[in-house]
Amino acid sequence: MKTLKYIFVAAALGLTATSCYDLDLEPKGLIYENVLFQSDNGIKKYLALMYQDLPVVEGTFYNEAQIVEFANIPPREVLLANVLGAFQAPIASFARAVQAIVDKGGVEACAAEAAGRGTSYGDGWGYWNYDRIRDINNMLEKLPDYRSNYKENDYNAYLGEARFLRAYYHYLLFELYGPIPIMTEISEPSASDLDYYRNSVDEVVQFIDSELNECYNELPEKEVNDDGTPNENRSAAPTKGAALAILAKLHVYAASPLLNGGYSEAIALRDNQDKQLFPAKDDKKWQTALNALQRFIDYAKTHYHLYKEKDKDGELNAEESLYQLFQVSLNNPEAIWQTSKNSWGDVGGEGRERRCTPRAIYSGFGCVGVLQEAIDDFYMNDGKSIHESGLYSEEGIGEDGIPNMYKNREPRFYQAITYSGKTWQKTTKQIYFYKGSGDDNSKADMSYSGYLLYKGMNRDLLNQGSNAKSKYRAGMLFRLADFYLLYAEALNHVNPSDERIIAHIDSVRYRAGIPLLKDIKPEIKGNQALQEEAIRKERRIELFAEGQRYFDVRRWMCADEEGYKQGGPVHGMNMNADNLEDFMERTAFETRIFERRMYLYPIPLNEIQKSSKLVQNPGW
Fold it and tell me: Do residues 134 and 146 lie in contact, with contact meaning Cβ atoms separated by under 8 Å?
C-alpha cells in the first residue's frame, strides 16, 4: 500500500525570491504529494522548491584572502574558510554558534558558506544538501505513476530538469568535499539503516557526467514563450549550456592536483572496507577535461559572447562593459546560467548593497573590506603588474585627493574597489578611512583594511530623496570569461604550444581594456610555466569576489606558495592614522591560519558521529 505524504510549502521558505516559475504558482500550506504530481501546476510548484538551495552568488565574497570581514563579529575569521583550524570547537557546534549570531540580528550573510556559497536554508558551514537531493529522488520515483497526466514532451522535460538539479547538487558537494555518497534513491529519515559510504572521486565524476549527458537532450537551449520571446519566469531554469558548463568544470576539478594524485594524505585515505576514495595521478584526465571544455566552447560560439559595450564611435568601452556585465539580467550574452536568488537588498535596508556602501553615504553600513594583497594583484592600465609597470607609485597623493597608489590602474580595479579618494556615485563626496574621516574605525560598521568591495554595485542607487534604493540583478552562476580561462588552462596542460591559449586569455584582457599578452609578453608563448602563471593571474583579477578563488587555490594545491598564501599575516592600510599621508602605510592587522587539511572541507561532524560508514577528510 502506498502511503500518501504531504508537503508543507510556504512563503517563509523564500519561494517568492527563488522560484524559477511564475510566482502566481507559489504553493500555500499543506499539499498532498499525489495532488502535486498529477498536474503541470503541481509539478511546477514542487520543482520550484528544488531550486531552494542554489547558491546565493552575491554572498561569494567571503573567500580566500580577498575579503577582510563582514562587520565586527568576533573572531573575524568566522567568515574565512581558510582558518577553520584556528578553532577547537567541533565544526558543527561552531556553525551553530555562527548561525546564532545571525538569528539574533547579526550579519545575515554570515550564514553564507565560508567557501563563498550561501543557501536559503540552514547554515552554510554544514552545507550537506541531501535533503534536497532526496526531494528530487522522490519526484523521479513518483512522477512515472502519473505519466498519463502529461504531454510526452512536458513529462520528459520535468524529469530532465530534476536530473539536472540532482547532478548539480552532487557537483556542489563534490566541489567542497571531494568524494561523497551518491544518492539516487529515496532514503527515509527514520530508517534504522540510514547510513552510506562515500563513493570514490572517479565514481562521483562518472555519475555527474552520466546524469548531465542523459538529461541533456531534454534541456532547452533557452526558455522562451510560445511566441519566441524570452520567458522571464523561467530565465533561471537549466539549459543545455549550463549542463555543458558543469561538465567542463567537473572534469577540470577531476584533472587538477587536489583530486588527481596531488594530495598525498587523501590518496592514503581508506574507508572501513579498505576502499581508496582519492585516485592516484592520471595526466590523461587533462585531455578528458579539454574534451569537455571543447564541447562547451564549440556550443558557446553560437550561443554566448563576452559582454561588451561600445562608445559613440563604435569602439569598445571597457568600463561600461565591465559595469553592465553585472547589471544586465535578461538576455545577458555572457551569462551561461543565472539564478533569481540574490542578496543585494537595498541601500536603506539589509543586504550587500548597503553593506558595501560607505558609512559616510547616507546610512551606509560599509563593512566588507578588501585585503591589500588583492589590491596589489590588479594590473596597471598598461597590462603589467605593479612590480613590472613603470606607471606604479606608492608615494604621494594627487591634488585630487587620490593617493598615487590608485592612479593608472586597470579598469577592473575601478569597477571592483572603493579606495581612498574615490568619489561616490551621484554625490561629490570622496571616501576616506583614516581616523576622523567618515569611514574610520571608530564604529562597528567599518573596514579593517581601508578598502570596501564595490564590484557589482549599482551606481544609480542612493539612500536619499527620490533616488532609487534598490535594483534587481540576477546572480551569475556561470559566465563565459571563466570558461575561456579554464579552456586556456586545459590547453596548456595538453599542448603548451597551442596558440589558442594566449588567444583566449587575450579575449578576456581585451574586454577588460588592457594590452594583450601577445603584444606585451610575446616571450611567454609556448612556455607552459609562464602561461600557467598568466592564466592564474587573469583568473584572480577577472573573477575577483565571484567565489572562484577559494576553489582555484585549493584545486591547484598552492595555498602555501607566494602569491597564493591562505595563511600568514594579511594587510591593509593604517587604520589608526589620523591623516591620509600616514594612512597610506601597509599594515598587517591579522595573522591567519592555513593547514593542509583545509584543502578540503570537513564532512559535517554530526554526519560523521551518526555514521559507521562515512570516513572524514584528511586531518579533520
Answer: no
HEC string for 73-119: CCCHHHHCHHHHHHCCCCHHHHHHHHHHHHHCCCCHHHHCECCCEEC
pLDDT at position 196: 93
| Backbone CA torsion sign across 387, 390, 393, 399 | negative
- Please report which confidence band the pLDDT of residue 126 belongs to, taking 50, 70 and 90 as the band edges: low
**Whole-angstrom Cα distance, residue 584 to residue 365?**
23
For the beta carbon of residue 104, count every other beta carbon within 10 angstroms.
7
Cell numbers 558558506 correspond to 113
Chain-centroid distance, C-alpha 304: 20
φ, ψ of residue 380 in degrees (nearest 5): -85, 170
**Higher-confidence position of 499 and 25:** 499
CA distance linking residue 315 with residue 194, whole number of Å: 61
DSSP 8-class letter at 616: P
Specify the DSSP element, H or E, that contains 69.
strand 67-70
Q: Judging by beta carbons within 10 Å of its beta carbon (0-12, 13-18, 19+), is residue 372 exposed, middle or buried?
A: buried
Q: How many CB atoms lie within 10 A of CB 436?
A: 10
* Alpha-carbon distances of 177 from 257, 589, 595, 599, 605, rounded to whole Å: 14, 31, 16, 9, 13
Amino acid at 84: L
What DSSP assignment string belongs to 549-573? HHHHHHHHT-TTSTTT-SSEEEEE-
Q: Which of 383, 326, 422 is nearest to 513 (CA)?
A: 383
- State the DSSP code for 133: H
Of 592, 553, 559, 588, nearest to 573 by C-alpha is: 588
In this structure, of 127-136, 281-290, 292-301, the range with the lowest mean pLDDT score is 127-136
pLDDT digits (tens, 9 = 90+) for 91-117: 333 333 333 322 222 222 222 322 333
Distances (CA, A) of 46 to 6, 132, 416: 12, 11, 38
CB 455 within 8 A of CB 413: no
Residue among 186, 133, 131 nearest 2 (CA): 186
The span from the CA of 346 to the CA of 342, in Å, is 11
Whether the model pTM is above 0.90: no
10: three-class secondary structure by DSSP: coil
Q: DSSP label at 75?
A: S
Q: Which amino acid is at 613?
A: K
Cβ atoms within 10 A of the Cβ of 227, count? 5
- Under 8 Å between Cβ of 100 and 473: no
